[in-house]
Design a protein that fits this description.
Strand content: under 5%
Order of helices and strands: HHHHHH
Mean pLDDT: 75
Helix content: 55-70%
Biased composition (Basic and acidic residues): 176-203
Region (Disordered): 137-203
Keywords: Membrane, Transmembrane, Transmembrane helix
Low-confidence stretches: none
Number of strands: 0
Structural class: mainly alpha
Biased composition (Pro residues): 146-170
Number of helices: 6
Protein name: Integral membrane protein
Shape: elongated
Largest sheet: none
Radius of gyration: 56 Å
Length: 203
């Protein structure tokens, strides 16, 4: 019984630098030739993509180029300043712009479909990876006894400290008594000072 065989390897994607250089060349040729070589860009697109629509566009560019040549051939001035010359130059330049735009679109779409960009998710850092340790022969001969964590100590509530009551103001009767004593003391001192002064004068 024969197998299906090996699948052919996928075509290698051209380097980005080579693609950029080719695109610059096939864009510059129609512009630098003032549209006379505009058919080069759609021809390149048709060869790369192998699509029937691109070949039809290449043929259409040749037809438009022939129409512009027909107008330019009827112009007998040196700078294409006649109405036919102006129409022929406008058609020529528009054809060049359309050919360049189609070539860039077809070429970019072709390589994007053929080699889609694949974004890989970021990988976890290797520093967090824990490597498994090989079993120790000591652990095989001396099995470890599971250590039971100590029981938590019972929570003892803190003793309640009584809050002293705020100081009370003395009663009005006490104030009156103190005031009376102060008055008596003032009278006594006044009398004593008077007696002391009289005795000193008599002497």
């Amino acid at each position: 019984m024969q197998g299906h065989g090996y699948a052919p390897p996928p075509p290698k994607r051209p380097s980005t630098g080579a693609l950029v250089v080719l695109r610059v060349i096939f864009v510059a040729v129609p512009i630098l030739s003032i549209g006379f070589l505009a058919w080069v860009a759609p021809l390149r697109a048709a060869i790369v993509t192998h699509r029937r629509a691109d070949w039809w566009i290449f043929g259409g560019s040749l037809v438009v180029l022939g129409i512009s040549f027909a107008y330019l051939s009827t112009d007998h001035t040196d700078d294409f300043s006649s109405p036919n010359g102006n129409v022929g130059m406008i058609i020529l330049l528009l054809n060049a712009a359309a050919c360049v735009g189609h070539y860039l679109y077809a070429d970019i779409r072709h390589y994007h479909r053929l080699y889609p960009m694949v974004y890989l998710p970021p990988q976890a850092p290797a520093a967090n990876y824990v490597y498994p340790q090989p079993p120790s022969p000591y652990a095989a001969t001396h099995p470890q006894t599971p250590v039971t964590p100590p029981a938590p100590a019972p929570h003892t509530p803190a003793p309640h400290t009584p809050v002293p009551p705020p100081p009370q103001r003395p009663a009005p009767a006490r104030i009156d008594q103190v005031r009376a004593e102060l008055d008596e003391l003032s009278d006594y001192l006044r009398k004593r000072d008077g007696h002391y002064d009289g005795g000193r004068d008599g002497r």
